[in-house]
């Protein structure tokens, strides 16, 4: 168990084995109300100059970047990560906000298009505004969705080499229950 400042590294084998993780959550240090399995990705820093990717080479550059991302991203299949009631509630709230924004935006956008088709031209002047607002809402729903993601919630990500999972600022209760190695 390596501890660097406030980042704790857990071996990938440990987190991928059910029943090995502590019974207190990483964020609040409260008893786990439920355990979750999820895929935790590594953060990928894409190489390549930005200058090459503009203009006619933009498309090729983007494909190259996506290819690099797929090759470099490491995924750990975390088993039984502890979440307390507060963690679970936080996650649920962000996901509710996100889906309300997503479906509200979709409804406004599609609805105004349909009304625009049915209604005669020029009879509903505010329709374009509603369509734009709906579209913006649709795009913005990605932010609360990201806030509600498990990786963000528990403050963890997979190391670039895929051999460990790094937890940022874990609670003392979580750290205390980690199995000792060596
Ligand atoms: Zn918690």
- Main-sheet strand order equals 1-2-6-5
Biggest β-sheet strands, sense, barrel: 4 strands, antiparallel
Q: What number is the mean pLDDT?
A: 87
Please give the share of residues in helix: 40-55%
Query: What structural category do the secondary elements indicate?
Result: alpha+beta
Bound molecules: zinc ion
Summed up, the domain count is: 1
Q: Please indicate the percent range of residues in DSSP E strands (runs of 2 or more).
A: 15-25%
- What is the terminal-to-terminal distance? 9 Å
According to DSSP, the number of beta strands is 6
Shape category: elongated
Number of helices: 7
Nearest-angstrom radius of gyration? Answer: 22 Å
Secondary-structure element string: EEHEHEHHHHEEH
Tell me about this structure.
The structure is a single chain. With 182 residues, the protein is of the alpha+beta class. It has one domain. Helices cover 46% and strands 18% of the residues. It is built from seven helices and six strands; from the N terminus they run ββαβαβααααββα. The protein has helices at 12-15, 58-72, 85-118, 127-140, 142-147, 150-154, 172-176; strands at 2-4, 7-11, 34-41, 75-83, 156-158, 164-168. The strands form two sheets. The protein has a four-stranded antiparallel sheet. Strands 3-4 form a two-stranded antiparallel sheet. A hairpin with a 5-residue loop joins strand 5 (156-158) and strand 6. The longest helix is centred in the middle third of the chain and has 34 residues, at 85-118. It is elongated and about 70 Å long. The N and C termini lie close together (9 Å). 18% of the residues are buried. The model has no long low-confidence stretch (mean pLDDT 87). The structure holds zinc ion (ZN). Keywords: Membrane, Transmembrane, Transmembrane helix. The chain crosses the membrane at residues 94-118, 124-143.
């Amino acid at each position: 168990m390596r501890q660097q400042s406030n980042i704790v590294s857990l071996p990938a084998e440990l987190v991928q084995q059910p029943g090995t993780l502590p019974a207190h959550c990483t964020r609040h240090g409260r008893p786990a109300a439920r355990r979750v399995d999820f895929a935790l990705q590594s953060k990928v820093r894409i190489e390549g100059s930005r200058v090459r990717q503009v203009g006619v080479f933009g498309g090729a550059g983007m494909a190259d970047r996506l290819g690099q991302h797929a090759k470099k991203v490491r995924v750990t299949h975390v088993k039984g990560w502890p979440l307390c009631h507060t963690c679970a509630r936080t996650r649920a709230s962000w996901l509710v906000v996100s889906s309300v924004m997503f479906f509200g935006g979709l409804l406004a956008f599609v609805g105004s298009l349909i009304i625009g088709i049915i209604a005669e031209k020029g009879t509903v002047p505010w329709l374009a505004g509603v369509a734009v607002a709906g579209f913006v809402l649709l795009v913005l729903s990605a932010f609360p969705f990201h806030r509600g993601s498990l990786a963000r919630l528990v403050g963890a990500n997979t190391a670039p080499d895929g051999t460990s999972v790094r937890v940022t600022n874990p609670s003392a209760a979580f750290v205390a229950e980690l199995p000792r190695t060596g």
